[in-house]
Amino acid sequence: MESPTRGTDSRIYFSIPLNPNLMHDPSVNALDLLFDPSAISGLNTVATPDFIKTVLPPKNRPQLTIDGDIDSPKSLTGGSQDHDNVSDDDIIGISGTTGIKALDVKDDVSLICIPGKIGEAKPKDIMEGGMAYCENRSLQDCFFIADMPKECLTPTEAKDFVKNDLTKKSDFGAIYYPWIKVTDPIGTSENVKEIPPSGLVAGMYARIDSTRGVWKAPAGTESNLSGALALSYKTTDTEHDILNPFGINCVRQFPGSGIVIWGSRTLGLKSKPEWKYIPVRRMAIFLRVSIYNGIQWAVFEPNDE
């Protein structure tokens, strides 16, 4: 490679000698070799086979114009949604380590929620299976956060679902209503979309656990849900008083506080009233796990057996 001389042509010229006995020819321009076949015609300073001397322009130059309409969105075709072939049994798991039972080998699980399947139909099997899993884990160390089905829009529909459809309730789970409107994070639909509340609620659990402690109810004016724009249904005080005794925790909007969680009851408040509050159940979970981990040193100490 030869650098340009000051005051002369600013282009860089290349010589490619394959025969060390041949002289360099600085007049050969590499760009001309690529894009102008005539520039290499008669080139004698490069000892190459004859077929190399016929140089054609590259065929992969950028296309200056694009066919079709690029201003409107396009949908992918020929595939299928992954969840179309996922059944409730696939999620809950029927044996071994399938579904959420894959968490059996994890000992640091605290919260479980399954928002992706909730909106398709009344997912009582998923909810009941999730609560049963948390209750039946060997250490009983996690809690299930359930979403009210999207089709249960009004308070009456929400109450009827919990009262009549959700037959196997547990104090190891809680349900939240209604759905929450947020800005679509990936922009594939309308600017605002409705999502199940469990994801935001789980984040609030974690925040309250960190700032206050697991003994504090994840609710109240301090439980403002970041990212929530509006609610699919605005519950009144009267409607809230009807839902609360059934263990339905409402997400509500108040002036000065924004959109907050306004309920802290488990779904076992009827069968086990001593465990009707979320912080009571989760505090017991915390104590159980802490004691279990804290006494491992004594497993092989001398004892009376």
Describe this structure in words.
- The protein has 305 residues and is of the alpha/beta class.
- The protein has two domains: 10-58, no CATH class; 88-292, 3-Layer(aba) Sandwich (Rossmann fold).
- It has seven helices and eight strands.
- The protein has helices spanning 30-35, 88-92, 124-136, 155-165, 198-211, 237-243, 278-294; strands at residues 111-113, 143-147, 173-177, 180-183, 192-195, 230-231, 248-254, 258-262.
- A five-stranded mixed sheet has the order 1-2-3-7-8, with helices on both faces. A three-stranded antiparallel sheet has the order 5-4-6, with no helix packed on it.
- A hairpin with an 8-residue loop joins strand 4 (180-183) and strand 5 (192-195).
- The longest helix is centred in the last third of the chain and has 17 residues, at 278-294.
- The chain is globular.
- The chain starts with 29 loop residues before the first helix and ends in an 11-residue tail after the last helix.
- 25% of the residues are buried.
- Mean pLDDT is 81; it is low at 1-7, 40-46 and 48-53.
Strand order of the largest sheet: 1-2-3-7-8
How many strand elements? 8
Largest sheet: 5 strands, mixed
Q: What structural class is derived from the secondary structure elements?
A: alpha/beta
Q: In CATH terms, what is the architecture of the largest domain?
A: 3-Layer(aba) Sandwich
Segments where pLDDT lies below 50 for 5+ residues? 1-7, 40-46, 48-53
Per the CATH scheme, the topology name of the largest domain is Rossmann fold
* Text of the CATH class of the largest domain: Alpha Beta
**Cα shape:** globular
- Give the helix proportion (percent range): 10-25%
How much of the sequence lies in strands comes to 5-15%
What is the count of distinct domains?
Answer: 2
**Roughly what is the average pLDDT, rounded to an integer?**
81
Number of helices, where a helix is a run of at least 4 consecutive DSSP H or I residues: 7
| Cα radius of gyration in angstroms | 34 Å
Order of helices and strands: HHEHEHEEEHEHEEH
User: N-to-C terminal Cα separation, in Å?
Assistant: 87 Å
